[in-house]
Structure formats: structure tokens, C-alpha cells
Amino acid sequence: MAVRGGPADPPDGRMVRLEKVTKRFGDLLAVSGIDLTVNRGEFLTLLGPSGCGKTTTLGMIAGFEVPDSGSVFVGGRDVTYEPPYRRPVNTVFQNYALFPHMTVFENVAFGLRMRRLPGDEIRRRVLGMLERVGLAGLDRRYPRQLSGGQQQRVALARALVNEPAVLLLDEPLGALDLKLRKQMQGELKRLQRDLGTTFIYVTHDQDEALTMSDRIAVMNHGRIEQVGTAEEIYERPVSRFVADFVGEINLLQAPVRGWDGGRLVIEVLGRRLAVPGQRVPVDAGTGSTVLVGLRPERLRAAQPGDQDAAAARVQDVTFAGAFVRLQVVAGGTPLQVTTPLGTPLASAAPGTEVFLAFDEGDVVVLRDDDDDGPSGEQGGPDDPGGRDAGA
Q: What is the DSSP string of 209-271?
């Protein structure tokens, strides 16, 4: 776990860069020509389903895997072929990888002792880091005497005490129960913010990604589908996969009625909408259809006489704590609706007719997974869709 590469301070602020990185395992293409930039002090999450390539990508940054092609840079230095111990990174795993025969203090001090730091400096740094992660006074305990959450904090302290330029976290909260996992999400983000260390976090859990991340890179089949802030990923997904994987969404085929002054005119639930051209990631001509998404919570109750109201028949109603979920059919189209308790829709019963409305800006045009389109990450927050250069 020792860090031999030393702290990195890239002059351009780009702490980690992947350039056209590809990795195969036999006939399996695990990672396909991805580009990714992680800025100094950023909390970036690699999000995607099992087998999408996110852990392999993390492994190439850590040095556990060597790309078949492409380059990996950390702190402005090309580390593509450097072994893990020479890189200014540390990794925290889901299984913690603590030494059971060592105390908490000895576990956290392990990397510092490998580097032969003076004893008084080791003690100062270890005790200081244990206080930061909420383990003050537990330095003499053994891992078996700790809860799962406390063991995870020991693993974090052991990695961070080495002062790495980048901390890599591979599904570190996966073994914790739901309540503790949510608590640790807040603590991780607070710790990252306080330390200013660059975090790259791997998870399949969309809630974790949305809660903690400065930016999210959504991966699928070894490619980066989209990079953006949590709000950009949720509110403006660029593809069917991203829209469907992050949160719940109604996916609809919308007829194209033409173009008007650089805006795409489409019809959604009987209503004509004009979508700005920069928000249309596909080629669309009059008479074709485009895939659009509409989040269930964006649908709200309307009056029967409202100009843009869509009539719908309630099929099913499900209580979900502070919300009610309705399954409805509008003009032959099945829809999900999510509404808070106490709203008019929350009291609707199966079989009744309701009227629905939505704002024009709530509809997002999506690239279908079968369409040829851009992939890969480019730039940063100013280019959330990653449309300027593909993987």
C-alpha cells in the first residue's frame, strides 16, 4: 500500500488522464478506447452495471492491469507501464483487506513503516487520520473487534495516511447494510472535501453516484456513454442506456413533425414540442421518430379543460412511503407517474381517469442504443454530453 511515486501536482489541474485506453481479456473487449479526464480534488464516479468495464478501468489507473493500447497519466506523468507501488495512488477494496493479526494502529501504519518514516511522524499521522475518520481511541483494537463500518474506516485511513494524489475506491460500501451505507456516503464525501484528495469511485449503485459525485462517468459495454454532473446525468441523459440506468424514466417514440428555426418539432402525448437543436443528439427528419424520455415525477395533475392535458386511465397504484407510484395508460401508451402524498394524483384509484401535464423542458431527446453515436468522455463540466470527440 505504500506510495513511491510521491504526491503529484499537475500544472493544468488534470490529475488523471486516460487516452484511447483499450483492454482485452482473450476475446472479451473489456474497455474500448476510452478517454477520461479527472481533475485535481474531484470526486468522480465510474457508474455502470456489472461487467461494463469500470473495475478494469480502475485497475489500469492503479497499475493492476496494463492497457493493450492507449496511455494512462497520473499527475501529468505517463504511468501506463509503471507498477502499482510507483504510482501516487492507493486503492480501497470492498473486502477491506485488513491484516487480522494487526491492531488498527498497525494496519494504518503499515505503508508508512514500509517507507521507513520516523516513529514519531508515523504516530502523529496515524492518530491524526484515525481522528479524521471517526476512530479516535480505537487504535489498539483488532479488526475482529470492529463493526463493518469501522473496518471500512480503517481501510480508508490506511489508504489516506499515505497522502496519495489519487484514492481509488472499488465498491467500498457494497458489504454494508443500507442504513450504514447511506451514512458512509455522507462521511466519504465530507472526508474527500476536507482533504481535497482526488477520489475515483466505482459503483453500480446510482444513488451512491448521484449523492457523492462531483461528476459521473456512466459506462456500458466497455465504453463511456456520458460524463457530467449528477444533475446533468439525471436531467439530460444523452442515450437510452443512461436514461434507463440512472433513475426511472418513461421512454416514448415521438413522431417528428419537422424543424422550425433550429428547433426540432416533435409530438409527445398528443402535444407538439419544439426542442432546441443542441439538445438533439440524433439525426431526425420529418416523418421519422425519435426516442424521448420523461421522468415519472415530472408528470403532474391537470384539469380536463387544460389545453395541454393528456387523458390517462389509472391501472395500478403503489404506496412508496412519502410518494405514490401510479401505472397509467395515456392514448395507448403505458406511463409511470410518481407523485408526493397529498397531491390530487395520490388519491387516484385504479380504473379512474386522470389528466396529466408536463413542462416542455422535461422532455429529453435520446440517442437510441442501436444508433451510431458519440461515446467517450471529453473535456469536463462544460461538455456534459461528450459529443465533441468519441471513444
A: HHHH-SEEEEEETTEEEEEE-HHHHHHS--BHHHHHHSS--EEEEEEEEEEETTEEEEEETTE
Do residues 21 and 178 lie in contact, with contact meaning Cβ atoms separated by under 8 Å?
A: no
Q: What's the full length of the chain, in residues?
A: 391
- Please, are residues 293 and 311 in contact by the beta-carbon 8 Å criterion? no
Q: Domain containing 148: what range? A: 14-236
> Closest Cα partner for 133 from 71, 207, 67, 195?
195
Q: How far apart are CA 187 and CA 42, in angstroms?
A: 16
DSSP3 helix / strand / coil % (the chain, rounded to 5) = 25, 35, 40
| Residues 29 and 112 reside in one and the same domain | yes
> Per residue in 317-366, pLDDT tens?
999 999 999 999 999 999 999 999 999 999 999 999 999 999 999 999 99
Q: Are 174 and 96 in contact (CB under 8 A)?
A: no
Q: How far is residue 60's CA from residue 166's CA, in Å, rounded to a whole number?
A: 13
Using the structure block, give the residue that is written with the C-alpha cell 485497475.
Answer: 59
Q: Confirm whether 379 is domain-assigned.
A: no
Rounded Cα–Cα distance for residues 12 and 55 (Å): 26
Query: In this structure, what CATH number is given to the domain that contains residue 66?
Result: 3.40.50.300
How many angstroms separate the CA atoms of 19 and 315, rounded? 49
The phi and psi torsions of 192 (rounded to 5 degrees) equal -65, -45
pTM of model > 0.70: yes
Which residues does residue 264 pair with via DSSP β-bridges, in sequence order? 259, 275
